[in-house]
Design goal:
The chain is mainly alpha-helical and 188 residues long. It has ten helices and no strands.
Length: 188
């Protein structure tokens, strides 16, 4: 395969991911998750298979598109709504919006301040906390919306054994995290 063809294929995958995020934002605006009795996170996990991972540069472009006013060709989402669609924190969306990729000439024409330095991405140490919080929030929301029997009945028959095994494993992992947290709390 030629390098050009491989690059074109690879770049097209990125476009698919960005398109999926636009569809998620549109579903949120249309009230589709709510109509199905789900919050956005549960709907994304159920029907999209989880959040689309983007490079920081691509995410910033998507943030600008999601939060730009409709009359400017954007989707008009609030920062919080965009954060929910992307599966990131509100602070990440705020930082992404603050970073501009314009030339000094473009900035001068618009009267913008140039030589703005980019803020660093959230520290890696925060990523496990954010992922854990999202998981706990999703499970909490699911448990508040449905009883265990209804949740179990919704699992396709062919996936019940694997899902039960995975849930037990996750429960064990979460128990270890809880134990570590308790140990940290008692030692401080």
């Amino acid at each position: 395969m030629k390098v050009e063809a491989a690059r074109e294929y690879s770049e097209s995958l990125g476009m698919i991911g960005a398109g999926t995020l636009r569809q998620v934002a549109w579903a949120q605006q249309q009230g589709i998750p709510k109509a199905l009795g789900m919050d956005l996170r549960t709907w994304i996990e159920t029907f999209v298979g989880g959040w689309v991972r983007l490079t920081i540069e691509d995410r910033r472009e998507v943030v600008l598109e999601l939060t730009a006013p409709v009359e400017d060709g954007g989707m008009g989402l609030s920062q919080r709504e965009a954060a929910d669609v992307l599966g990131v924190t509100n602070a990440t969306v705020s930082r992404d919006r603050a970073v501009t990729n314009v030339t000094d000439d473009d900035a001068t024409e618009r009267g913008a301040v140039t030589n703005v330095t980019e803020q660093q991405e959230e520290p890696i140490e925060d990523e496990p906390w954010i992922a854990l919080k999202q998981a706990v929030d999703s499970v909490g929301s699911l448990a508040k919306s449905y009883d265990a029997a209804r949740i179990a009945a919704a699992v396709p028959a062919r996936r019940r054994a694997a899902t039960a095994k995975r849930l037990r494993s996750i429960g064990t992992d979460l128990g270890r995290v809880a134990l570590a947290l308790e140990r940290m709390e008692t030692s401080s």
